[in-house]
Amino acid sequence: MSESRRAQELRAEILVKTAEYYAEAFGGEADFEPGTSRVSYAGRVFDEREIVSLVDSSLDFWLTYGRFSKQFEEDLASFLGLKHCFLVNSGSSANLLAFSALTSPRLGERRIERGDEVITVAAGFPTTIAPIVQFGAVPVFVDVVLATGNVDVTQLEAALSSRTKAVMLAHTLGNTFDVDAVTAFCERHGLWLVEDNCDALGSKWRGRYTGGFGHIGTSSFYPPHHMTMGEGGAVYTDDDELASIVLAMRDWGRDCICPSGVDNRCGKRFSQQFGTLPFGYDHKYVYSEFGYNLKVSDMQAAVGVVQLEKLPGFIAARRRNFETLTTLLQPVRDALILPEPTPGAEPSWFGYLMTVREGVGVTRDELVAALEKARVQTRMLFGGNMTRQPCFDGMRASGEGFRTLGELPNTDRIMNDAFWIGVYPGMTEDMLAFMAETIVGSIRR
Ligand SMILES: Cc1ncc(COP(=O)(O)O)c(C=O)c1O
After folding, report:
1. How far is the CA of 371 from the centre of ligand 1 (A)?
2. Per mean pLDDT, which range of 20-29, 76-85, 137-146, 379-388 is the poorest?
3. Is 225 annotated as catalytic?
4. β-bridge partners, 254
5. For residue 1, what pLDDT band results from cuts at 50, 70 and 90?
6. Are 302 and 54 spatial neighbours (Cβ–Cβ below 8 Å)?
7. What's the average model confidence in pLDDT over 151-167?
8. Pocket of ligand 1, beta carbon within 6 A
């Protein structure tokens, strides 16, 4: 965009004023008063740089995919050490896109077809599994391990059938699933692996970032996540073919790869033959996939670009807060199953998951009530046991559309006895101490 000198000066002034506005409107930190101030489980952590970047982008008035989106995709791919990254409007859209890409006819025999099975877990977030169900594939649920909330890899072989095509799993609350076992299982049986990395950006497995172990990985940038752009997500992969399918499906299903506002980058816009379309039919309107429009506005990406620069600091703070809670909760480790990193993992924690042990004289619901009364925000492990959610009513009644490997006792345990609290970078030492005191006090009544 070419801007007149006066417009450039005005932009610079506006950005200086924006930073001043931040200092005035958001700058001061309120004192923490235990029991009165709210302790959120998560939230956006930002300063004037995000707002300045947002306003900068709004003055471009480009609105759709633009310079910040492109930069964000390049920066995140480089952070993760992957070739391709596509920005989308949510983590749920990212999961939809990642799964849908694997149904593309371009993949021939390996594509997922209706009725094929996808192994996953029920203790998690609904939109890790929604794309499987919506497409008409069959989720097959195996149980989880209590201390990690992650897939019990000893059950994978038993869950396999002649229709199994993929494994789709999240790293629960940042704690990495056993990547060695899951990838070995997928390789042994020629299965796709979709890594829902929405709660684990920055987690490492044997020194490498998660999200790149599967054929496709996904992120969410909704405010509670490791970094935010309000609404946003990403799909990433090292596979060129999957990347081109993901791009097409993100952008209406079209074959053309010109970004918004660009025409005829390939120079062959009116000179190609596609299927039975007339020769030279405008490539901009040639659809090689059935797609969506899952793009974000460039203003969201402008916030994301700054947040991504801060990500290493955010991850370190989450790890520190996790360690602090583990130390402070030692007095009640006989009453609570405290979270443990999967051996081999260096988690970038999303939350602090605890399961109340049996017969300790206090229930999960009592602990949650005590924390919420003390103004500490708590969370369940999302859907608990997804197969018991109302959205499964029809499938449960008919006994069709999904399978479980046995009764999923640990998944039910998590639904009944587990909850989590936050470790986000906005948490102070005082807040961590207060949360731990409240928990210890409620157990030692
Ligand atoms: C594991 C997991 N996957 C996917 C999502 C969906 O992300 P979004 O809220 O951006 O749609 C979430 C949301 O928190 C999540 O926890």
Report:
1. 24
2. 20-29
3. yes
4. 287
5. low
6. yes
7. 98
8. 90-92, 95, 124-125, 127-128, 170, 196, 198-199, 220, 222, 233
